[in-house]
Amino acid sequence: MKQILLKNGKPEIENVPSPNIEPGHIIIQSSYSCISIGTEIKGMNMSSVPLWKRAIKDPKKAVDFIKKSSQKNLLKTIDLIEDKVFSLMAIGYSSSGVVIEVGEGVDDINIGDRVACAGSNGAYHAEQIKVSRNLTVKIPENVSFQDASTVSLGAIALQGVRRLSPSIGESVTVIGLGILGQITIQLLKACGCKVIAVDLDQDRLNLAFKMGADEILNPTIDDDISKIKLLTNGYGVDAVIITASSSSDEVISSAFNMSRKKAKVILVGDVGLNLKRDEFYAKELDFLISSSYGPGRYDDNYEQKNVDYPYPYVRWTENRNMEEYLNLISNNKINIESLKSLTYKIDEAKKAYEDIQSKFPKPLLVLMEYNNSIHKIDKVIFNNKLKKLNKDKINISIVGVGSFSRGVHLPNINSLKKIYNIVGVMNRSGHNALSVMKQYGGNFSTSNFNEILKDKNSDSILISTRHDSHFKMAMDALKAGKNVLLEKPLTLDMSDLKKLTNFYKSGEKNDMPLIMVAYNRRFSPYISKVKNIIANSKHPCIINYEMNAGYIEKDNWVYGKEGGGRNIGEACHIYDLFNYLLDNKYASINVKKITPKNNYFLPTDNFQASIEYMNGSIANLTYTSMGSTKSQKESMKVFIEGQTLIMNDYKELIVYGKDKKSYKDNQNKGHKEELIAFANGIKSNEWPIALWDLLQSSEISFKIEQLLTKKNI
User: Fold this and answer.
1) Is 102 helix (H, G, I), strand (E, B) or coil?
2) 366 strand-pairing partners
3) CA dist 458 → 232, 277, 396, 463, 469 (Å)
4) How many CB atoms lie within 10 A of CB 388?
5) Which domains does the chain possess?
6) CA-based, 20 to 30 A from 453: which of 316, 317, 415, 476?
7) Measured distance between the N- and C-terminal CA atoms of the chain, rounded to whole angstroms
8) Bridge partner list, 644
9) Which residues of the chain have pLDDT under 50?
10) For residue 546, is it left (φ>0), alpha (ψ between -120 and 50) or beta?
11) How far apart (Å, rounded) are the C-alpha atoms in residues 76 and 483?
């Protein structure tokens, strides 16, 4: 399918894998999408600015860059920059079309329904889009696809008016008469308000008058503040809604100065906010921010997981705002037809964006048109530069190209071209899969995991998706005869361990594919030195490991069903490390956790686990989210046969014994080394991490989780 993507600030029309249906989502064949003249163009202009120039404009980013360069080696920092440069960014957030596929759990929308949808994570400028149920509404019969494609803009304007809660007869100034301002005027008139429209563009002022504004003011001609005082008997307006986009602080200043005492000022647009206390303090003004489409916006539970807010308590969610906006169009309360300026076919996308930036006066509203009679599903997009595959190398496909894959795995695989070929790239977002395929030279991209499983050229798969999908994907890949390098954790369900065991019992292990969990720390050069010392000892040892994991907000996906929590999802790294260093079965586990005074810190994020092994060794983990981010994240001490080994954040190893020895280099957590080990394991048929070892790391994490939560896993 065709999709408009940004590359270095310029729109490109790319053939992208069609979206794959998911529970709670809908796939739509697009009819029209609405280009945001303000937000999208601002984003385009920003993305075209080189990173060093952005850093100069934002000193904090410059400091962050310097920190990254010092903490990681320069080559890794360059990899991160190159990833940004090569990225293809999806744009668009308001569209309309016809439903062509419905996901599990959606029972009130059917194939063939006319719908409008919103959201910058789905309602793209593309022939087919996948959007969650809560960001989709049905279109009334008498509303056109063109008008319905403005649903996001309408919901934004409507939420701004709702923040105001206007009363009949109140006087309200609308500053900024772009598309949001023009819709806002009509909404206020529908509420029985007297509307004063303010803008620097006389054509937009004239249009606002046609849309129902009672008065129009041009600050370049009129003294808008004095004129408003005159129009309101010297009091000032009851409220101001700012829908302008300007870096100037004068906009907000004017809004305060034209308001009466105890008035409301609602910010919908994006303006300078260098506030002057004397302009609002004496009047005791209420200054309110309107957040996009309404309640639910920026809440992943609402927007992606379709958890609705109860109607009696949250009357107007973003979905209900979208629905009501279309009803207002249907009932002729909102006139969008008079506001439409330009419509372009998707193949004319480059011209559309050029015209938006060059035409004067700028159009209020620009629509992209699609041929919604075409239902071609492109599950796979092949690279125009197909490479011949070398059977002497590991031909690997990548599943999941989030920030970790792009920042760590892919640059490392790319540096190991003598060992690896990248074959396919799969991601839920097709444009991200396409972007990685082009950057790293894969042969095809897809949004459908089955296409990776079916590919005969892929002998191995790297799975780096969210935690809850790991085990099923890994098992499907193993059953398809693919070797699997699986990001941690192996699974979130203890019963899966038996399933994996039974799988390998069902056949000759030497003839079966290899599975390795990406427990990278055991492959760090610093840990290898520790391992050698412990392996040459005849006595048990004590290991104390500290992980200063850092605080994460409780609404992060890590804590939900997708993540399984931080013990299972992250601390498993350290349980694997203990297994590797001690090479023994565990005998017992004891856990202590904190009892926090409030709900800010979680007891399951702050605990000590002590694991006794069969050889008498004891391994202790202190895991905490309460520490300072300015101190090192990880450290380890090992006490063994008159020696003390100290590892500091995978940057340094100090060995105290007869003599002091120190090993220091760039931070190395073993990510590249694990890829080499995986490849060697495939070629030699010797597992880098034995099956019992993989199972034990997960088993330990489950036992500790049970002790922490008092629940069965």
Assistant:
1) strand
2) 35, 342
3) 73, 64, 6, 13, 20
4) 6
5) 2-150+299-369 (3.90.180.10), 163-289 (3.40.50.720), 393-407+422-514 (3.40.50.720), 520-709 (3.30.360.10)
6) 415
7) 42
8) 639, 656
9) 52
10) beta
11) 27
CA-nearest of 592, 653, 647 to 623 is 592
The Cα-based distances of 696 to 501, 584, 701 in angstroms read 12, 10, 9
Separation between Cα atoms, residue 252 and residue 287, nearest integer Å: 10
CA distance 414 to 304: 33
The model's pTM is 0.89
* pLDDT for residue 372: 74
Other CB atoms within 10 Å distance of the CB of residue 686: 10
Start-end of H helices in 198-299: 202-210, 224-231, 250-257, 277-280
Q: How far apart are CA 310 and CA 322, in angstroms?
A: 17
Tens of pLDDT, residues 530-563: 999 999 999 999 999 999 999 999 989 999 999 9
Is the distance from CB of 401 to CB of 410 less than 8 angstroms? yes
CA nearest to 189, candidates 35, 55, 328, 61: 328
Token pair for residue 435? Answer: 């972007």
Residue reference for tokens 């500790």: 704
User: What's CA 126's distance to the chain center, in Å?
Assistant: 19
How much is the pLDDT for 658? 84
Do 436 and 401 contact (CB within 8 A), yes or no? yes
Residue 512: both structure tokens together? 């079966």
Strand 366-369 to 618-624 pairing: unpaired
241 close to 184: Cβ distance less than 8 angstroms: yes
Nearby residues of 684 by Cβ (< 8 Å), 6 or more positions away: none
**pLDDT digit string, tens, across residues 72-85:** 555 555 555 555 55
What DSSP designation does 236 have? -
Residue 173: name the closest of 193, 188, 195, 157 by CA.
195
What span, in angstroms and rounded, lies between the C-alpha atoms of 681 and 484?
Answer: 11
**CA–CA separation, 2 vs 14, rounded Å?**
6
At how many degrees (to 10) do helices 691-709 and 572-582 cross?
Answer: 130
For Cα atoms 383, 384, 390, give the angle at the middle one, nearest 5 degrees. Answer: 65
Three-state DSSP at 621 gives strand
* Cβ–Cβ < 8 Å for 94, 118: yes
